Amino acid sequence: MTTFSQLRELHLEGNFLHRLPNEVSSLQHLKSIDLSRNQFQDFPEQLTTLPALETINLEENEIVDVPVEKLAAMPALRTINLRFNPLNAEVRVIAPPLIKFDMLLSPEGARAPPP
Questions:
Q1: DSSP letter string over 31-76?
Q2: What is the pLDDT of residues 53-71, one digit of tens each?
Q3: pTM > 0.70
Q4: Which of 81, 91, 101, 108 sits at a 20 to 30 Å CA gap from 70?
């Protein structure tokens, strides 16, 4: 990862990933990351350290909790897609008043369509 320090977009959708390497934190110019259709159970918090990150796609994972306060402090973040994740009710209640970006969520209990 450190070889690609100028990387702007990273598409890793559908790769059965469950975590990101710590080296992701070195991608200081990254603007967009697509981690949809993987196996993340925990939100990859390394993403909250990336100052240029505008778009995070984590659709269709197994994420229950999200670091709302850290996301709210991200200067460039515009959109985070968390559709079809089993998010806890607390995230759904706490997030809206704290965030200044679009958080895309599915209705509570919604399931992703079959592949």
A1: -EEE--SS--SS--GGGGG-TT--EEE--SS------HHHHHT-SS
A2: 999 999 999 999 999 999 9
A3: yes
A4: 108
